[in-house]
Amino acid sequence: MSLSGKTAVITGSNSGIGLGMAWELARAGANVVLNSYTDTDEDHAIAAEISKETGTKARYIGADMSKGSECRRLITEAGRCDILVNNAGVQHVAAVEEFPEGKWDAIIAINMSSAFHTAAVAVPMMRDVGWGRVINVASAHGLTASPYKSAYVAAKHGVVGLTKVIALETAQDPITSNAICPGYVLTPLVESQIPDTMEKYGMDRETAIREVMLTRQPSKEFATVEQLGGTAVFLCSDSAAQITGTTLSVDGGWTAL
Ligand code: NAD
């Protein structure tokens, strides 16, 4: 399948899952717009590398997804958005009674409200060109809860709800809206936590991963950013044209428990 001629905008894509999705969408032929809240030479160099390796157009637009006006500017500045991937996300862990108000507001803004603002500008663009895909990166925490993650779980459940509403509002357009719900994914951030976990529990790498980090993931394996990227490409395929308003878990069985 070729996504040649399509433009994908991926929020929060200078690292981790967003970057993995940008690579896979570009390998499938899409032009990609990368984003984060920074605007460094390195950010632009990542886009240049994707262009060079895949032969597609890739560029980087800095925009802070905690601000509605910036979310909207990102899509306007991209100029075209056939595939919208709402991926930007942050986390904070604390009990409800100790959860800092500022952290709550930031997590709700970046992890949930940004998807509303970007979609508000992107969906009319999709209608204009007669094709579109909204792909929201939620989480297993969009379907289940864990203690101490109130803002994250609330935001991710909210994203799943927003995904369904956009699907109903676009049901008779050639546009779909779905949420991908990853379990634990091996990103550079997660990789960097492995040595600390090994030291804290006095375990070798394999045991620390299986017994501590992946306690809730029955497969006892991390998902990879390439697998998440492949799931996004699948959702862009013709085979997925009637898949809308749903969640796709990529979680090694987490939500089957
Ligand atoms: P990451 O920290 O590598 O990526 C997060 C991205 O969001 C980065 O590019 C970061 O720069 C960007 N970002 C943060 N604040 C931003 C802001 N204000 N404006 C614009 N961009 C901003 O983490 P990741 O693990 O790749 O997470 C990506 C998404 O996947 C998040 O929504 C996260 O909740 C979700 N997720 C991750 C996992 C996992 O195990 N890694 C599991 C389930 C869901």
Short description:
This protein has eight helices and nine strands.
Structural account:
It is built from eight helices and nine strands. With 257 residues, the protein is of the alpha/beta class. It has two domains: 7-184 and 223-249, Rossmann fold (3-Layer(aba) Sandwich), CATH 3.40.50.720; 186-222. It has a seven-stranded parallel sheet with strand order 3-2-1-4-5-6-9, sandwiched between helices. The chain has a two-stranded parallel ribbon with strand order 7-8. β4, α4 (101-129) and β5 (132-137) form a beta-alpha-beta unit. It is globular. The mean pLDDT is 97. Nicotinamide-adenine-dinucleotide (NAD) is lined by residues 11-18, 35-37, 64-66, 87-90, 110-111, 137, 139, 182, 184-185, 187, 189-190.
List the helices and strands and how they pair.
Layout: E1 7-10, H1 16-27, E2 31-36, H2 41-54, E3 58-62, H3 68-78, E4 83-86, H4 101-129, E5 132-137, H5 150-169, E6 175-182, E7 185-186, H6 188-201, H7 205-213, E8 223-224, H8 225-235, E9 247-250
Parallel strand pairs: 1-2, 1-4, 2-3, 4-5, 5-6, 6-9, 7-8
Helix pairs in contact: 1-8, 3-4, 4-5, 6-7
Nicotinamide-adenine-dinucleotide is lined by residues 11-18, 35-37, 64-66, 87-90, 110-111, 137, 139, 182, 184-185, 187, 189-190.
Features:
257 residues; alpha/beta; Rossmann fold; 2 domains; 7-stranded parallel sheet; two-stranded parallel ribbon; 8 helices; 9 strands; 16% strand; binds nicotinamide-adenine-dinucleotide
